[in-house]
Amino acid sequence: MNKLLSDLEPWLRRWVNEELENALRRCNSHLFTRFHPLENQAEVETSSCLQLMFSKKVLPSTLFTASKIADMDNNPLQLVLVDQRSPSTSTGDRVLVPLGDLSLYPIKIEIVVLNGEFPLGGGETWSSEEFNQNIVKERAGKRPLLAGELCVTMRQGLGLVGKIEFTDNSSWIRCRKFRLGAKVAPGSYKGTVRIQEAITEAFVVKDHRGESYKKKHPPMLEDEVWRLEKIGRNGIFHTKLSSQGINSVQDFLKLYVVDAPRLREILGPGMSEKMWQITIRHAMTCVLGNKLYSFQGNDNCVIILNPICHVVKAFIDGQLFLFPAASDDLSVQTKYHIQSLVRAAYENWNSLQLFEY
After folding, report:
1. CA-CA distance, 272 to 263, in Å (whole number)?
2. Long-range contacts of 251-256 (CB under 8 A, 24+ apart)
3. pLDDT digits (tens, 9 = 90+) for 209-237
4. What is 47-209's CATH topology?
5. pLDDT tens, 111-131?
6. In this structure, what are the phi and psi dihedrals at residue 302, rounded to the nearest 5 degrees?
7. In whole angstroms, how far apart are CA 334 and each of 255, 279, 309, 316?
8. What is the domain partition of the chain in residue ranges?
9. pTM of the model
């Protein structure tokens, strides 16, 4: 018996010591939670594995008051619930969470406005307290900063944001930018794991009066020429172009195709080479549509043009040539003749016939 007790003594001592240490650790944790509730809450919150996300968090760099907020493709904003433990940082690849208990009931989501500087340092985690502290409210005497359908019902891990719009610009806060945020409405979610809030990228909000001066991306043929980058409305370039009858984006592109040096000369040395390249690149993104126009010279040559004077087809002595591939099969003389027809078509544009095909 003495030998047995002697063998058990070291094990008993270790067991007693471990139990005492565990008891002390639980006691200290309780005291820390009691006297430091905010720090403990932040630690728990930032360890959340569930997160709301905007499916497209990059919005247009400039929004306007009284205009419906949409994504870069002009579609309504969409919220998704994702699992942060997914290895990918891309929303499209992350794991949605319409599973288990979360799929049994809808969750109410609130849409709010955030300071564009949040989160500081560009971090991807924050506490609910930090998020709420960065919510931007309206200025004194103003309407609520965000108007419309500010409550979203999320079902099966997905929620579509309705029509929302800003009522005030962002020039009055220090960084001059806002973000949109989304958080779970109080009392809507019964789970034990915190759902981290969603945020968009930062953007500028301007008064809707400035929208009439906004550039078009992409521009349309019928848009006024000042909708192009680097051409200001009623500015010097706009005035020079208008004096030459170049009033629309289509007018601008037709002259660029037919006689680019002439267009460059009209704009003058005040437009730098860098500005010129920016304007041309923007203009060339124009939506051309499907209309084609025919023009016949004094011989048996007929050319078919798109809306900006590019040759699409040519009928020469009854033979069809498709462009630009046909350029390699034509003689220098024929190419020159076609170029002269293009210039003649440009100068007589209003007499061209729509080409039926």
Report:
1. 13
2. 251/225, 252/225, 252/228, 252/283, 253/221, 253/283, 253/284, 253/286, 253/308, 253/309, 254/307, 254/308, 254/309, 254/346, 254/349, 255/346, 256/280, 256/283, 256/308
3. 766 667 878 899 999 999 999 998 889 99
4. Immunoglobulin-like (2.60.40)
5. 999 999 999 887 888 999 999
6. -120, 130
7. 22, 32, 17, 9
8. 2-35, 47-209, 215-283, 293-354
9. 0.52
